[in-house]
Prior knowledge:
Blueprint: H1 6-20, E1 33-38, E2 42-47, E3 53-58, H2 61-67, H3 78-91, E4 101-107, H4 111-132, E5 137-139, H5 144-156, H6 161-164, H7 168-180, H8 186-191, H9 194-208, H10 214-235, H11 247-278, E6 280-281, H12 282-291, H13 296-306, E7 312-313, H14 315-327, H15 331-337, H16 341-359, H17 363-373, H18 388-409, H19 412-424, H20 426-463
Parallel strand pairs: 4-5
Antiparallel strand pairs: 1-2, 1-4, 2-3, 6-7
Helix pairs in contact: 3-4, 7-9, 10-11, 10-20, 11-16, 11-17, 11-18, 12-13, 12-16, 13-14
Amino acid sequence: xxxxxxxxxxxxxxxxxxxxxxxxxxxxxxxxxxxxxxxxxxxxxxxxxxxxxxxxxxxxxxxxxxxxxxxxxxxxxxxxxxxxxxxxxxxxxxxxxxxxxxxxxxxxxxxxxxxxxxxxxxxxxxxxxxxxxxxxxxxxxxxxxxxxxxxxxxxxxxxxxxxxxxxxxxxxxxxxxxxxxxxxxxxxxxxxxxxxxxxxxxxxxxxxxxxxxxxxxxxxxxxxxxxxxxxxxxxxxxxxxxxxxxxxxxxxxxxxxxxxxxxxxxxxxxxxxxxxxxxxxxxxxxxxxxxxxxxxxxxxxxxxxxxxxxxxxxxxxxxxxxxxxxxxxxxxxxxxxxxxxxxxxxxxxxxxxxxxxxxxxxxxxxxxxxxxxxxxxxxxxxxxxxxxxxxxxxxxxxxxxxxxxxxxxxxxxxxxxxxxxxxxxxxxxxxxxxxxxxxxxxxxxxxxxxxxxxxxxxxxxxxxxxxxxxxxxxxx
Length: 476
């Protein structure tokens, strides 16, 4: 889960492990297949073997508005979950004459299962839209832009049987899994089963479950890292001073404190690097639209769906926005744009490469941390900024060994002294926890206000179309 903030991914793993041993708890549902639904809201679902929804995730801001505090999706059959999504899409006017094509991507290890799931999704949408008097067209046909990128990928790996066997559905799932775990290479991901990939995506969905929007996600990550770092500074140095007559404990305690301090410094650098590498500016999105020779109105639509409230876009969000634009164009006009895909891809490739080069400025900060860590443990080679992940894993492993040593080798008297000292800083720890909780509550309140504002804007826009669900559509 390296695409997630590493510290938080570790916490998720710890919670998951604890859950395994919880008494009288039902077994956690396993993700079996994957569904992506693109209206303008872009939504991902993972399903179990009975086609019940295990997890749901809003993939863009429209979807965050749509799904906020929504019930009746997770744990429901895919038909009922889709009915709820269709109801919300209608309520907030996301299906209009200009946006009447709904794209559905399904990926499963069984082709018959894929078709069955698509049929259920199709029925769920059509039944709801029929009740609401909304006209829309569902399609599981691969988008032209996505097909172009898949063809380019296969051309780059002519001898890789797994990549050559990728279907558009599995390709979408592979990309989602790689976005979640950036340690995955395309070769590794393509070789995984749909079920394995869906499990990776499911874990990401669980992490984002309570994250209302992108702004809150940033607040949460920064507040959590600040809290954990400050708590570590209060507690971790105590091991080195518990018993100064015990030379081995003192040395290991000093090493532990140094490694914990370096760990949080590296995680912070990792967070900065992810921010640098992940996001494209609005101006760069505009330039990509120029490569497609889009009109000002079309460019505005792409920006609307690709760029978040912080003025940031990802490579995937740009692809999604272009694909949505193509899906709602007349076929002949969309086909005319296909000759320009290569220019867009070349431009975005250069942009992403420049972002990686920019992130190399962090190398000096990494080197400073490595210099101190190398005196304590053996580290893997660091040739580029992304290699910091391997360093963090090595530091984590050594920290775990030291924690195990403390548990096994400290005397009862030493443990009692440690506990007494930890209790003395209880007030400081409580203050840190309160500060963290306050930051989160403020972030949640701001995020909820953002959702409510966006929802009111949606309803006002619908009012401008005569107040009908889905704009100016009539009944079937």
